[in-house]
């Protein structure tokens, strides 16, 4: 195994539930210790290693701080690589996606900033519920399919919340 587990870099056990503030603090502490500036006078090899370590640390932090990415990573650690883009075999959720998309378009057309704020709160609640559901089942082999379905839903909501933030910025200008 070439690169260490992302969780191991932060001295954490693989888990979906993480204290994100603690993760950020640990990241800053580790990032300072491997910052390339600290190795300015070091040998070329030491500089390269520091740079590689810094890159690994950045990638691990980006993965672990984002719930859907952390979920995918946990499944991959258990030997279940999820294809990035998958047609959701989840008719109930597909319908929900269509409703959300239509609602977002309406909010955009009407430039309803208050409506966007309400939509964003509902989205956050849906994300929190998915996160809780995933946390409860990701490590159970018998519930692998459910965990994968939840990750796909999480990825969609993550993308949708990014689009909502963009809309908010446009309407704020």
From TrEMBL:
Tell me which Gene3D superfamilies the record gives: DnaJ domain, HscB, C-terminal domain
Asked if the record carries the keyword Iron, the reply is: no
Quick one: a GO cellular component term? Answer: iron-sulfur cluster transfer complex
Q: Which GO terms describe its molecular function?
A: ATPase activator activity; protein-folding chaperone binding
Q: Which UniProt keywords apply?
A: Chaperone
What are the BP-aspect GO terms? [2Fe-2S] cluster assembly; protein complex oligomerization; protein folding
The UniProt entry, under SUPFAM superfamilies, shows: Chaperone J-domain, HSC20 (HSCB), C-terminal oligomerisation domain
What CDD domains does the annotation carry? DnaJ
The protein's superkingdom reads Bacteria
Q: What does this protein do?
A: Co-chaperone involved in the maturation of iron-sulfur cluster-containing proteins. Seems to help targeting proteins to be folded toward HscA.
**What PANTHER family does the database record attribute to this sequence?**
IRON-SULFUR CLUSTER CO-CHAPERONE PROTEIN HSCB (PTHR14021:SF15)
Q: Which HAMAP family match?
A: HscB
Q: What is this protein called?
A: Co-chaperone protein HscB homolog
């Amino acid at each position: 195994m070439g690169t260490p587990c992302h969780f191991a870099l932060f001295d954490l056990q693989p888990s979906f539930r993480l204290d994100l503030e603690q993760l950020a603090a640990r990241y800053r502490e580790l990032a300072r210790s491997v910052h390339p500036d600290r190795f300015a006078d070091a040998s070329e090899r030491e500089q390269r290693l520091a740079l590689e370590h810094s890159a690994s640390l950045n990638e691990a932090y980006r993965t672990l701080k984002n719930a859907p990415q952390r979920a995918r990573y946990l499944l991959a650690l258990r030997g279940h690589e999820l294809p990035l883009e998958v047609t959701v075999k989840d008719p109930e959720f597909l319908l929900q996606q269509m409703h959300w998309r239509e609602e977002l378009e309406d909010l955009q057309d009407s430039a309803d900033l208050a409506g966007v704020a309400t939509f964003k709160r509902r989205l956050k609640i849906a994300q929190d519920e998915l996160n809780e559901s995933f946390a409860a089942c990701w490590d159970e082999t018998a519930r692998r399919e459910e965990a994968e379905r939840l990750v796909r839903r999480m990825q969609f909501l993550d993308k949708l919340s990014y689009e909502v933030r963009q809309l908010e910025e446009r309407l704020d200008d």
